[in-house]
């Protein structure tokens, strides 16, 4: 294994063992283990994915679709376990973004050198 | 420093010390140190950035702009030092992509668990 692969694997393990990731896992499992929560969360993700895909394909998003997405977000925000899950997702995303900034620093420094 | 920050920093150093990154740095410096190469490369990057920004803003890209971009790409591909630099960029990008896949594995595994 190269130094890079070794360091990347160490980082993977550190992420898995972090409080942020453990809390996300617990929040995710809590939602997945309650069928009504799971259905609501799956529905929320499907609506979001559909809109993202349309956006990426440059397709028009109708007013009805925007309204539907808004009401699904409002619904899950009022659901204690799902809103907790979404908070934990955001914490882990911030962690991953911090890491990405760190590992792309050498490239950024190179290209901003002159 | 947390384990994550420590591992991320080790990874940053491993990237900086990798052959891939060192070769990219050498190729970049070779282009930057030759004014005519540098001008051609800067022009190429500006044309690409402009098109990317237009695309992200959902603006229409004219046929003239597509033709201009194509001819700039053809020009830099024939330039030995710049085409070498672009190859090295691709190698480092592949490296970074591999790393990204590794560090997002815990998340992927969590969300594909059920
Ligand atoms: Ca540095
Ligand atoms: Ca794993």
* Poorly predicted runs of 5 or more residues of chain A: none
Molecules bound to protein: calcium ion
Helix content of chain A: over 70%
CATH homologous superfamily title of chain A: YheA/YmcA-like
Name the CATH architecture of chain A: Up-down Bundle
Which structural class matches the secondary elements of chain A? mainly alpha
Radius of gyration of chain A equals 19 Å
H/I helix tally of chain A: 6
Question: Structurally, how many domains make up the residues of chain A?
Answer: 1
Q: What is the CATH class name of chain A?
A: Mainly Alpha
CA-based shape of chain A: flat
Largest beta sheet of chain A, briefly? none
DSSP E strands of chain A, number: 0
Range of strand content of chain A: under 5%
CATH-derived topology of chain A: YheA-like fold
Protein name (chains A, B): UPF0342 protein ACFOZ1_12715
Family (chains A, B): Belongs to the UPF0342 family.
Keywords (chains A, B): Coiled coil
InterPro entries (chains A, B): Com_YlbF, YheA/YmcA-like_dom_sf
């Amino acid at each position: 294994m190269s130094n890079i692969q070794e360091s990347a694997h160490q980082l993977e393990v550190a992420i898995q063992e972090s409080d942020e990731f453990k809390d996300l896992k617990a929040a995710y499992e809590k939602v997945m283990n309650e069928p009504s929560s799971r259905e609501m969360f799956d529905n929320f993700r499907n609506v979001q994915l559909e809109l993202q895909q349309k956006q990426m394909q440059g397709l028009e998003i109708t007013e009805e679709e925007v309204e539907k997405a808004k009401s699904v977000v409002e619904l899950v925000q009022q659901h204690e376990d799902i809103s907790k899950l979404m908070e934990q997702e955001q914490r882990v995303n911030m962690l991953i973004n911090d890491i990405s900034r760190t590992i792309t620093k050498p490239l950024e420094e190179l290209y901003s050198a002159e």
